[in-house]
Write a structure and sequence with these properties.
heterodimer; A: about 350 residues; globular; B: about 300 residues; mainly alpha
């Protein structure tokens, strides 16, 4: 218990410190980067809730981010904008206009509901079949978002979403996500789920209902993803379905994997490191493009470096930087060892 | 009658291509129990090789052969970069490294070639059509069917009659046992990747022959098709992959003919939901493969 509180404190302080740093640098760009980072962190923590505890890789996560973002957008776009932004919207929804804060919550809930309805049968699968079907689920969600013109304006950009996400709102939700991820990990459900991750047969033999527990984890992960997506929508105020596909999946996965999928510490640290590397590489790309060293535009360099980093980390430390123990546990263990000797 | 002929030719040519794609994926999965997410990029490599050698005065068949060889080289590279360093460690790790390798290849194409689609040289015959039972049929469909029959036959011969094929099947059934009986593990795995690259290369040329251009993201659709065909047919069975390929082609073609324009946009969603339903009914796919499928 004590070490969980220590983990929570250390990671919480790191998150608040990042927000304060971005605020007091006084540069608008840094504030934007930090806000995006907190949104990513909510998503990565959500993915950790499912992947870290169940041991199953899920590609569908970003799809639920899309569901949350669109739900919140549809519910909160002001009346007078709706005719322009969503010309084919169903009449019932035309007059609905929630406050963005309520609609962000609604986005998370709808994503969780969609996950609950779709995923129960998928949770019976393990290993490669589970991964492939989660990939299929991402494609299904993406196809629906791209073509359901009435609700999403089709493949075109949806605009007119009220701006609501500030640096501190994103920071606060990230803190809440941190608490949620640790609480789930230490709850009875989380511990049983991790038992099934380590040995599926033994866990089933002592009577753990693996399918149901995975389902619970998956729904919780989708809730995080939906809220993260909705926050992001109210931050950028216009987006298209392309924002919720493989490129983002790759980014979120690289954050979780480089940090270590099995620990909440890994999720937080991974997000911090990858965001920093990503932004540094992006600005390098921009500098090269401005200087005009290459004949063509340089694109894709960031992804290449990140991919190499991912392969390198996994070859050297397959569990990521924090493979098994949370930072709080690591520190208490060290202190105890020091005390004894 | 016309309609029936057209329908059958569509299913067979699409199914042939799908079956070859699925076979290349299952071959590696059968032995290693690991999914190769970079499989689609082998098709991309074949396409870009064809584009790059396009300006040369070589005959087209030689260019196609070069493209297939490059796809095989890329297959071997996948083994060395994404699989070998992490193979023994964890399933999730390999899934992610192969996903990373796929992103690497795609972005390399973006960076070094172009984000825009590039044309590939195709022989005249790909755009001609012939009359079969009174229905105009594009030659490329016939070529695809012929190539699929030829390759599936060759592949069956390789797996049933040659030492390499028997060793690969033994490794797919029980890897540890096969190693103890003197089957060289790394050689078998590398050959599986090379054959997988060969299948991807051939299928890539046929696939790009339908579109005429190659772009960095071209591998995604074949990858998804191969995934779905494998899952339907059974991840551990080579026959299952072929069956799954043809079944998926049948479903796709039927949906193409029966869905209205409005719903056709959602075709992928329908197909993938069907897959989820099939898995509900049979979580192992339609055909069960050999042995337990434990990772070793």
């Amino acid at each position: 218990m004590q070490r969980n509180i220590l983990t929570l404190l250390i990671l919480g302080v790191l998150i608040v410190a990042a927000a304060l740093l971005a605020q007091f640098m006084g540069i608008r760009l840094y504030e934007r980067i930090a806000t995006t980072m907190f949104v990513s962190m909510i998503l990565v923590l959500g993915l950790q809730v499912f992947m870290g505890n169940s041991g199953i890789l899920s590609f569908a996560h970003i799809g639920f981010m899309g569901v949350g973002a669109y739900t919140s957008a549809v519910l909160s776009i002001p009346d007078r904008m709706k005719g322009m932004a969503l010309p084919d919207l169903y009449p019932i929804l035309e007059t609905v206009q929630l406050s963005p804060y309520l609609s962000i919550l609604a986005g998370g809930l709808v994503a969780a509901l969609v996950a609950a309805a779709l995923s129960y049968p998928l949770m019976r699968l393990s290993d490669a079949a589970a991964v492939i079907t989660s990939f299929a689920l991402l494609v299904v969600l993406h196809t629906v978002l791209t073509h359901w013109s009435a609700m999403t304006n089709g493949p075109r950009t949806l605009f007119g979403i009220p701006e609501a996400t500030s640096l501190w709102l994103a920071c606060g939700v990230a803190l809440a996500a941190l608490v949620g991820a640790i609480a789930f990990k230490e709850s009875r459900a989380g511990q049983l789920l991790r038992a099934s991750r380590d040995d599926e047969v033994a866990a089933a033999a002592i009577g753990i209902d693996i399918t149901r527990l995975r389902w619970v984890g998956f729904i919780l992960a989708a809730l995080f993803a939906g809220i993260g997506g909705a926050l992001w929508g109210h931050f950028v105020t216009s987006f298209s379905p392309r924002a919720f596909y493989l490129k983002e999946t790759f980014l979120i996965l690289s954050m979780l994997v480089i940090g270590g999928a099995n620990t909440v510490t890994g999720a937080v640290i991974g997000t911090l490191i990858v965001t920093f590397a990503y932004e540094a590489l992006r600005s390098l790309e921009a500098t090269i493009n401005e200087a005009g060293i290459m004949a063509d535009q340089v694109i894709g360099l960031t992804e290449i470096v990140l991919a190499l980093a991912m392969i390198a980390v996994l070859s050297l430390r397959p569990g990521g930087l924090f493979p098994a123990r949370e930072i709080g546990t690591l520190l208490t263990l060290k202190r105890r060892k020091g005390g004894r000797s | 009658m016309d309609f029936a002929v057209q329908f059958i030719i569509n299913v067979l040519s699409l199914g042939g291509a799908y079956a070859l794609m699925a076979l290349g994926l299952v071959l590696v999965y059968g032995i290693l129990k690991l999914v190769n997410f970079a499989y689609g990029e082998l098709i991309m490599v074949a396409g870009y090789t064809l584009h790059l050698v396009g300006g040369s005065p070589l005959p087209w068949l030689v260019m196609a052969a070069v493209a297939v060889v490059m796809a095989m080289v890329a297959g071997l590279a996948t083994d060395y970069v994404a699989f070998r360093p992490v193979r023994a460690k964890s399933v999730t790790a390999v899934l992610i490294t192969s996903f990373a390798f796929s992103t690497l290849l795609q972005n390399a194409a973006l960076l070094f070639i172009s984000p825009r689609p590039r044309s590939v040289p195709l022989p005249e015959i790909f755009s001609q059509s012939v009359m079969i039972a009174g229905t105009p049929t594009p030659m490329r469909d016939i070529i695809t069917i012929a190539a699929a029959v030829l390759l599936l036959g060759l592949f069956a011969f390789l797996m049933q009659k040659t030492v390499l094929g028997i060793a690969m099947r033994a490794a797919a059934t029980n890897f540890t046992m096969a190693r103890m009986l003197g089957v060289p593990a790394n050689l078998i795995i590398s050959s599986a990747f090379a054959i997988s690259g060969l299948l991807a290369g051939v299928v890539g040329i046929l696939w790009i022959g339908r579109i005429g251009t190659v772009a960095p993201a071209i591998g995604l659709e074949p990858l998804l098709i191969a995934f779905i065909a494998c899952v339907i047919g059974g991840m551990r069975s080579l026959q299952g992959a072929v069956l799954g390929g043809f079944l998926l082609a049948f479903i796709d073609t039927t949906l193409n003919y029966t869905l209205s324009q409005d719903l056709l946009k959602f075709r992928d969603a329908f197909t993938f939901s069907l897959v989820i339903l099939i898995l509900l009914w049979r979580p192992d796919g339609l055909m069960k493969g050999p042995a337990t499928g434990q990772r070793t």
